[in-house]
Every structure is written in C-alpha cells, then in structure tokens.
Design a protein that fits this description.
There is one protein chain. The chain has 10 helices and no strands. With 276 residues, it is mainly α. The protein is globular, with a radius of gyration of 23 Å. The protein has a domain of 182 residues. 73% of the residues lie in helices and 0% in strands. The N terminus is likely disordered. Keywords: Membrane, Transmembrane, Transmembrane helix. This is ABC transporter permease.
Length: 276
C-alpha cells in the first residue's frame, strides 16, 4: 500500500495559503530576466548595439588604413579611435534600452502587476538594474571582442596597428563594456525617476551628450572643473589613451557608476512613495 501524499491544507475557500510560498530575490530576478529577454525590443536593441559597435569600428578602421598619410596621430591613440567612435553611437542605443526597461512598464500599466507581485518594490527595481547592467556588459563585451578580432588584421603592419600588449590600448578595450554598462544603469535610473520614455531618453542624452560640451565651453575655471565630473566626461576618461583631465581613468569609471547608483537610489525611494 503506497503512502498518501501530504499536501498543504487548503483554506476555507479551497485555496492553498499564500504563506506556503516565499518571495525571494532570486525568483524576482528570474522573473525580470524573463520579461527582459522576451521583449522583441530588447532583442532588436541588443542586436543593434553589436552592429553599431562592430560596424562603425570596422568602417573607421578601414578608412584610417586607407588614409594613413592624412591621420594626425599614430600609435595607441589612432588605433583605439575606431573603437571609441563605435562607443559614441552605441551608448545612445543602450540609453534607450535602459530607459525603456522601466518606462515601458509604466506606459503599459504592467508596473502595477510588478509592484503587486513585489509589494516592497525595491527588490523588483534592483533586479531590473542587475538584468540591465549585466546584459549590457555581456553584449558589449562580446561586441568589443568581435571588434578587436575584426580591426586587428585591418590595422596590422601599419603605424596605427592595434597592440593589446600596450596597457593604454588594453584599458580602452576592457573599459568599453564597463563604460557602456554604466550608461545603461544611468538610463534606467532616470527612467525610474521620470517614468516617461521620451523624457527619460531625452534626459540621459542631455546628461551624456549635451550638458558637458555646454559647461566645458563656459570660460569659468570652476565650471570647467565641475564639468569633468559629469557622468560621460568622467567615464570617458577610461577610453582616453592619454587623459589630461581629472579624474583619472579608473576613478572616472567609479564617478560614472556613482551617478547611476545615486540616481537609482533616489528613484527607488520615490517609487516606494508614489502610486504605481
């Protein structure tokens, strides 16, 4: 005679008590990853990121190789320029991805279901941040590896050959996915704060591409000094072969992530106070 299976006792309405199930961060993270990867926009955006990073770097490497006599710089600076050129456009794509990851839920009303499933809200938002940052880091690392594999033979045997044994070149290559992951986090944070797709995208583009050139052009020393600590200005020190401004390359990356973390923290605080 087989033993009878022991099942949770149903409630008066015939429903298994909710206390039998536990909400864990791992399950929230898995849920957010499923939502993230099943969106068609996510697949397209990440694919476009790879195409932009690899395509533009390859194009500029070919142009540089064909016009060696007209290039004003040589060595590591010129060799890494194609990679950095791709980053300049790739950050726009990841800014859109980071913002839409949260603002898309606000526009469709799905955020109410998310916050109903995770009443404290913080784990859901932290899980979104982990998914966005890790996805951006992995995809851009793959794109950077492909870029290096493609442009190395194009530039080899020339004064602008890509030499990975050069620590400055290696820093740019390693720093590229780290910088782009920081931009994705910054975009997500602004999306949580603004809760509107157009507003969040405009905000991150303004913060990354517009404000710094404006402040840098003001002939006031303290304004110029402060502008160097804006997110993109600080983060791009990591992608500069011979940086001349403060902060130094790796501290500059920390400044970029500090912007993202602080804005994300403010966004989480406000999200817990606001109605969904």
């Amino acid at each position: 005679m087989s033993a009878a299976a022991t099942l949770p006792a149903p409630s008066a309405e015939g429903v298994v008590p909710a206390s039998k199930y536990h909400l864990t961060f791992g399950r929230v993270l898995r849920s957010e990853f499923v939502k993230f990867r099943t969106l068609r926009s996510t697949v397209w955006t990440l694919a476009i990121t790879i195409v932009v990073l690899v395509g533009l770097a390859t194009l500029f490497a070919a142009i540089f190789r064909a016009n060696l006599d007209n290039i004003g710089s040589t060595g590591a600076e010129a060799a890494t320029t194609p990679i950095v050129t791709g980053v300049g456009f790739g950050q726009l794509v990841l800014a859109v991805l980071g913002a839409l990851t949260i603002t898309g839920e606000y526009s469709t009303g799905m955020i109410r279901s998310t916050f109903s499933a995770v009443p404290t809200r913080t784990p859901a938002l932290v899980a979104k941040a982990v998914v966005v940052v890790v996805s951006a880091l992995v995809v851009t690392a793959i794109a950077t590896a492909i870029t290096v594999a493609v442009i190395t033979p194009i530039l080899s045997g020339s004064p602008i050959a890509l030499d990975l044994s050069d620590p400055d070149v290696l820093r740019v290559v390693v720093g590229t996915p780290l910088y782009l992951a920081g931009i994705a986090l910054l975009a997500l944070a602004l999306g949580i704060l603004i809760r509107n797709s157009a507003g969040a995208i405009f905000g991150v583009i303004g913060l990354v591409l517009v404000i710094n050139p404006i402040l840098s052009g003001i002939p006031v020393k303290w304004v110029n000094d402060w502008a160097q600590y804006l997110p993109s200005a600080a983060g791009q020190q990591l992608l500069t072969v011979h940086p001349t401004n403060d902060p130094a390359p790796w501290p500059g990356l920390l400044v970029l992530f500090a912007w993202g973390v602080v804005l994300f923290g403010i966004g989480v605080f406000l999200a817990k106070k606001r109605d969904a």
